Design the sequence.
């Protein structure tokens, strides 16, 4: 029998075929952000290497050793960061140019295609499936009903399913996937602040001096343009920050250097106060801030065994649950509903008078996964030993379980994270590519506690059915 015939039939809901939006904001940002990064790198490289390193310190001052000590490690970090960046950027490259092909091969950025069918023996193992107990399939965009292995998500921006999808990142115009590109992603985010510190460290003092001298010039009574700026009350229109920054920009354009300053260095950009050095230093600080924010948010979800999307969906789900409850409370005038649910904000509201759109959204955002538990793996005595029968019965009564030939389909509990390996370091090792994430059949290691709980619940169901 064809493996796909054992899969689910085409279903409605979030995986149902929807026309793909032609214009997506992430695709646009993904084209703009790499260009901004490239522009910044060219500007910073010119300033650090040519103006400051070569013209000012080498040609003017003859400092060979200190220039080498600054530029060699800076270049090393730059190349490592560039390698990490290209490894992600090229991973979805559809470019047919030979140089892109060469780079993609060199960096090992090509990724294997997802298998279209589940392994033929999936019924013999604990296997993530849909609510009906069949291997999940994806019908969106070009996926065409292919099998959707565990921890695979459809990226709407790329129009295809990705294994271990963490998120679609506009910085790279590509997907961050565990464990394919997540190591490069984390390396890049760590290297950006290091590169900033190493490469721009000698610029900090100069940038500060330029900023200060221009500011003094901005406040100078002889500076006609600045006098006009400060006298004009319309310059308050953008708020006090804009008034000061604008005053500074006006002064920087009219800053007149003395001839002594010009001849002191081969580099005018270093010797004469101007806006370039302060702009490169402050915008670099902005990029470092974004990189650090991304690094900490990624680490916090990855160390909990969750992807960024998992984390965001959980938050969105609990927000939606609360909003549905609020709507219901206001319409029925019953305030007990909300109070009674505070202990378990992730729990789905009971359907009833819930509008279809709410139910569909809750279903789409729900962090609950379904697992096929084969009867052959259940040892009734051993499985239920550590569990309280009442607790298991409570799970069975409260959830949609289905007993089928050869196995039982069980949902996870709301607080369970089946692919969380239990400790932060094991989860991080997996995201850093230091341990194997999935086997050759795209099966990920299940949390031992979740696996034991699933087996115990299945054993209890078997016991009760006798
Ligand atoms: Zn994508
Ligand atoms: Zn898909």
Sequence:
């Amino acid at each position: 029998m064809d493996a796909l015939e054992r899969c689910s039939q085409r279903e409605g809901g979030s995986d149902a075929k929807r026309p793909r939006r032609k214009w997506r904001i992430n695709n646009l940002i993904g084209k703009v952000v790499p260009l901004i990064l490239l522009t910044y790198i060219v500007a910073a490289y010119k300033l650090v290497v040519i103006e400051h390193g070569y013209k000012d310190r080498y040609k003017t001052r003859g400092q060979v050793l200190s220039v080498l000590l600054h530029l060699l490690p800076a270049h090393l970090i730059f190349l490592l960061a560039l390698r990490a960046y290209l490894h992600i950027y090229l991973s979805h490259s559809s470019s047919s140019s030979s140089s892109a092909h060469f780079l993609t091969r060199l960096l090992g950025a090509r990724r294997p295609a997802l298998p279209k069918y589940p392994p033929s023996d999936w019924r013999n193992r604990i296997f993530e499936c849909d609510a009906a107990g069949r291997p999940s399939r994806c019908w969106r965009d070009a996926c065409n009903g292919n099998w959707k292995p565990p921890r695979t998500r459809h990226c709407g921006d790329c129009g295809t399913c990705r294994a271990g999808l963490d998120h679609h990142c506009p910085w790279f115009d590509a997907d961050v996937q565990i464990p394919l590109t997540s190591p490069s992603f984390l390396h890049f985010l760590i290297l950006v602040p290091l590169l900033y510190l190493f490469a721009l460290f000698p610029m900090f003092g100069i940038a500060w001096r330029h900023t200060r001298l221009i500011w003094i010039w901005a406040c100078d009574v002889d500076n006609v343009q600045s006098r006009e700026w400060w006298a004009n009350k319309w310059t308050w229109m953008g708020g006090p920050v804009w008034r000061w920054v604008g005053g500074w920009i006006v002064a920087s354009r009219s800053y007149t250097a003395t001839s002594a300053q010009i001849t002191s260095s081969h580099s005018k950009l270093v010797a004469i106060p101007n806006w370039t050095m302060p702009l490169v230093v402050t915008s670099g600080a902005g990029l470092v801030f974004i990189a650090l924010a991304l690094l900490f948010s990624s680490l916090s979800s990855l160390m909990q065994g969750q992807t960024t999307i998992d984390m965001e969906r959980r938050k969105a789900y609990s927000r939606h649950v609360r909003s549905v409850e609020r709507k219901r409370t206001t319409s029925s005038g019953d305030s007990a509903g909300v109070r009674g649910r505070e202990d378990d904000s992730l729990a789905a509201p009971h359907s009833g008078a819930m509008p279809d759109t709410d139910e569909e959204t809750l279903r789409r955002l729900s962090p609950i996964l379904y697992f096929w538990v084969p009867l052959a793996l259940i040892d009734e005595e051993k499985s239920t030993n550590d569990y309280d029968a009442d607790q298991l019965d409570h799970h069975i009564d409260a959830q949609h379980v289905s007993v089928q030939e050869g196995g039982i389909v069980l949902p996870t509990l709301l607080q369970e994270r089946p692919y969380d390996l239990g400790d932060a370091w094991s989860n991080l090792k997996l995201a850093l590519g230091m341990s194997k994430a999935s086997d050759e059949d795209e099966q990920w290691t299940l949390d031992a506690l979740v696996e034991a709980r699933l087996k115990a619940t299945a054993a209890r169901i078997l016991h009760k059915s006798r």
